[in-house]
Design goal:
Layout lengths: L1 H52 L1 H15 L6 E2 L9 H16 L12 E4 H12 L10 E2 L4 E5 L4 E4 L8 E11 L2 E10 L5 E2 L5 E2 L5 E10 L2 E9 L43 H12 L7 E4 L25 E2 L10 E19 L12 E9 L4 E5 L3 H7 L3 E22 L8 E7 L1
Length: 433
């Protein structure tokens, strides 16, 4: 009996010691876990700030995303079937990533000096850029300015050494993250604008044309690009507080006109004759036709904070444009102008294409239009010399044989000249006279 009691006491003591030891171990584990969470959180925070503070790391990431943003692709999200990536963008980005990563000297060349780029190398680079789930559609890419010829038998691309230069280079402005998803705020720096001059004559960092958001997923040894999304509006970025506005010089010897005098006042002793007065008043009364409403058959989706609505052709800004929204070249798409009352129309002035130094040749230019009036009559016109007009900063002008009275004008796209990068047909401005 005594032995059993002693055994019971021993077991009870051992049990209490186990519980005490387990409690101590649990406390240690809890503390270690808490320290781990704090450490991981601090490490992630430090990693994010490290990307911004470390110039080499920023440059590494900018070089990594360069082949994707260099040609200004449309937005995409690889995790969302409703926002697929353009297959051409995936292929073109992977080709350039392969070339930029390895250098042209690594690859063989044909008799004409074109680089022979194995498609297997491009597949490997695509997996590094976008992840192994992305499968490229190997095909020839060719338009007016670029040509990547795919040879199916050799499973290789022939890349000319005089390939197109990039449209943009990236500048990482901000990095945020949630878990293993990193969001880069990327400024798009146009080529030829790497440095700007301030009013004081000093070099300043370039102002981005726009800002986009690029999402990267952290993986072992690097990142995968998973999405490109619209960023904040960059309109404010394009205003330079140091820009010098030229002022009209004032001659201090000139007297200021009294408030009740005007510059076109007649000289003393001179009076306008009745006929001269009638001619002046009649010329002042003549006003251009007014069309208060403009709509379009289709419109391209907004991108990078920019809208491509039909109303852009009436905003007196050459660097905005209407862009049709069809997947093809936009043949048959149109702008429709409507008036509240019949207007007498002698002709039309328009700026053809997207009249921006960056996008003019990249997009389609229109070479022929059909103009339809409210009574159903139509006029077909060739648009000649539009490249020269853009260089001179002038409107192209279409003058009708006889004035037309109409309540609407429909400008229909008949023929185009293909852009170097996009199949979008554009018109920047329209005026009536």
């Amino acid at each position: 009996m005594t032995e059993n009691k002693r055994s019971s006491v021993v077991r009870s003591t051992i049990s209490r010691r186990k519980r005490k030891n387990l409690g101590a171990v649990g406390l240690v584990v809890f503390v270690l876990a808490l320290v781990g969470v704090i450490f991981i959180g601090k490490m992630s925070s430090d990693l994010t700030s490290h990307i911004l503070d470390n110039t080499k790391e920023k440059e590494r990431l900018e070089n990594f995303i360069l082949p994707v943003i260099m040609f200004d692709p449309l937005t995409f999200d690889l995790s969302d079937p409703e926002q697929p990536a353009d297959p051409r963008m995936l292929l073109e980005s992977s080709i350039w990533s392969t070339l930029l990563t390895n250098g042209s000297d690594k690859f063989a060349k044909d008799d004409y000096g074109s680089i022979i780029l194995p498609a297997t190398d491009v597949d490997v680079q695509a997996a590094k850029l976008f992840g192994s789930e992305v499968k490229l559609q190997h095909q020839t890419i060719a338009d007016y300015e670029i040509s990547y010829q795919y040879n199916e038998e050799q499973n290789a691309y022939y890349i000319p050494v005089t390939a197109t230069m990039a449209v943009y280079t990236p500048k990482i402005l901000e990095v945020t993250h949630k878990g293993d998803l990193y969001t880069l705020q990327v400024g798009y720096i146009p080529q030829g604008n790497l440095w700007q001059m301030t009013a004081s004559g000093e070099n300043a960092e370039p102002t981005p044309d726009k800002i986009m958001l690029m999402e990267l997923k952290k993986i072992k040894g690097g990142y995968n690009i998973v999405a490109l999304k619209d960023g904040p509006d960059t309109q404010a970025l394009n205003s330079n507080p140091n820009q010098v506005t030229p002022q009209t010089p004032v001659n201090p010897d000139e007297e200021m006109l009294p408030p009740d005098e005007t510059l076109n006042s007649e000289a003393p002793g001179e009076e306008l004759t009745s006929s001269e007065s009638d001619e002046t008043s009649s010329s002042e009364v003549e006003t251009p036709p007014v069309f208060s409403k403009v709509t379009a058959s289709s419109t391209a989706a907004s991108s990078g904070g920019h809208s491509y609505e039909a109303s852009n052709v009436m905003d007196d800004d050459w660097e905005t444009a209407w862009i049709e929204g069809k997947d093809d070249d936009g043949i048959g798409e149109y702008l429709l102008f409507e008036a509240d009352s019949p207007q007498t129309l002698k002709g039309i002035r328009l700026t053809n294409g997207f009249t921006s130094d960056k996008y003019y040749t990249a997009n389609n230019r229109i070479t022929q239009v059909t103009i339809e009036f409210s009574d159903g009559t139509k006029v077909t016109e060739k648009l000649e010399g539009y490249d020269k007009l853009f260089e001179e900063g002038e409107f192209g002008e279409i003058t009708f044989d006889t004035p037309v009275e109409t309540t609407s004008v429909k400008i229909i796209i008949d023929e185009i000249e293909r852009g170097s990068r996009y199949k979008d047909s554009c018109i920047s401005e329209v005026q009536f006279f």
